[in-house]
Specification:
Chain lengths: 273, 203
């Protein structure tokens, strides 16, 4: 009987996963959430900024990673705007540029002045090489913003030459977070990376080595940041669902092993008879 | 003539490398220009990719090769976005953005989400206590999940610390090894290019 647990049909697992992950989205459980050290470090880094300081925030993630990465970007943008920090938005992938446009539009609608408080530089082509060129000479690499304005004519870009002219660099990566470590960190400005959960292992050593000053990991990181800022959003809403998914994975792993051991015992018995 | 791309590559790589170690203004300016060109070339490569993909699949449709129907869908998808973008409202036009948000975005997110179902099913099938290594891997993985799942963190105060230790010490150590190994490998590959030993790109 127990041996059957070793061979649960995939469709049963899929159905269980769908139900378990969906239900908390409909009926929130408001599970407790501890804030991990790296999220607090990132939050503190943004807290150090004063009104009027200039920050670059770039995005890489595509809509595929929206659930994991977008809550972090949204809450960080909110934090920056609340502190009246000026933000240069851009995307170092074509998909990332879309978020920059949406953020600029959203905050413009909430009373921020385009070109003074925020600017959308659009898509930076060239991936890591493009980023290397950008940090050395911002106006030359991106002479026009996403709306076609000459960046030199925008008050927010006055006096900006290299990446050292900003107080903080924030990158929301989707697999190429090391680009920021390699190309921005050598300029000795604080770098905070919002990463997808799967990349945390890859980037954490750079946090330990102080090559980056903050790391916010996936949906959970976004939820922790929302908790720190006191601004519940998609992160905290998704946290319950993610929790439920983790619990189901653990349950299936345990069930699978019970089934496997029972099956082994049955085989040993049959062999002994 | 065949050697020209290789020599050009060696010269450019050498210049960028020298700029990294020497603080000479001329080198700095030259390297800055090259990096700018690299960004332009990458943007151009996207256009080239678009053209070559269209031609390849157009040929497949014309010759009714196996899977030509998929090629038709691909070409239609490939053309619909630029056509909608340039004919209706320009780069920031409503139709183009609608296609991006409601078709591309939805498909993109759906495909990624489907993976999660396989992660769940895969974990169930893979984490079996079949050998000592599998037991160690399974326990380590479960401890990290226990320490990173807020609903379980409260069961025992030590779970988050244990997960943190596993993450930072054995995990971090292995990751550093990989990073350093990759770095040394990249350097070796770079030296091969610089010395002209690596010729696969020109052959």
């Amino acid at each position: 009987m127990l041996a059957k647990l070793a061979h649960i049909d995939s469709r049963v697992i899929f159905a269980a996963f769908f139900i378990v992950v969906s239900l908390p989205l409909i009926f929130p459980l408001n599970l407790p959430l501890n804030v991990l050290g790296w999220t607090r470090q990132s939050y503190d880094e943004l807290q150090k900024l004063a009104a009027g300081d200039l920050v670059i925030m770039t995005m890489q993630y595509s809509p595929a990673l929206m659930a994991d990465s977008h809550p972090t970007a949204v809450v960080m943008m909110k934090h920056l705007m609340q502190k009246n920090v000026r933000v240069i938005l851009m995307g170092d992938t074509p998909d990332g540029a879309r978020w920059a446009t949406l953020f600029a539009k959203e905050w413009e609608g909430k009373g921020k002045t385009y070109g003074v408080d925020i600017v959308d530089l659009g898509f930076l082509p060239g991936y890591e090489t493009g980023l290397a060129a950008f940090v050395r000479d911002i106006p030359k690499t991106m002479p026009r913003d996403a709306r076609g304005n000459d960046v030199g004519s925008l008050p927010i870009m006055k006096g900006i030459k290299t990446v050292t002219d900003v107080k903080l660099f924030i990158g929301h990566e989707s697999g190429s977070g090391r680009n920021y470590v390699r190309q921005v960190s050598p300029y000795k400005i604080p770098v905070v990376i919002g990463c997808m959960t799967a990349d945390a292992y890859e980037l954490e050593p750079f946090l330990q080595a102080k090559q980056i000053q903050g790391l916010i990991v996936g949906l959970r990181g976004g939820a922790e940041y929302e908790k720190l800022l006191g601004a519940p959003g998609a992160g905290l809403a998704g946290n319950d669902s993610q929790n439920a998914g983790h619990l189901l994975v653990i349950a299936f792993v345990i069930l699978g092993n019970i089934g496997y051991l029972a099956e082994r015992r049955n085989k040993a018995r049959q062999g002994g008879e | 003539m065949k050697q020209l791309p290789l020599r050009l590559g060696i010269a450019i790589c050498g210049l960028i490398l020298l700029d990294h170690f020497l603080l000479i203004n001329l080198l700095r300016n030259l390297s800055k220009e090259i990096l700018d060109y690299a960004a332009i070339v990458t943007a151009f490569a996207m256009g080239l990719g678009f053209v070559s993909l269209s031609i390849r699949h157009y040929k497949a449709i014309k010759a009714r090769r196996e899977g030509w129907l998929y090629s038709t869908i691909l070409v239609m998808g490939l053309l619909s976005f630029p056509v909608a973008t340039f004919l209706f409202g320009g780069l920031r036009g409503r139709l183009g953005m609608w296609i991006y948000d409601n078709i591309y975005g939805s498909i993109n997110a759906t495909f990624y989400s489907i993976q999660m179902f396989y992660v769940c099913s895969g974990s169930y099938r893979v984490f079996r206590v079949k050998s000592t290594q599998a037991v160690v891997l399974g326990i380590a993985a479960m401890l990290v999940v226990f320490g990173r799942t807020p609903a379980l963190e409260g069961l025992w105060a030590g779970f988050p610390n244990l997960a943190d230790w596993l993450w930072k010490v054995p995990g971090g150590g292995a990751q550093r090894g990989i990073v350093i190994g990759t770095g040394v490998g990249t350097m070796a590959a770079g030296v091969r290019y610089l010395l002209g030993i690596e010729r696969s790109s020109t052959q």
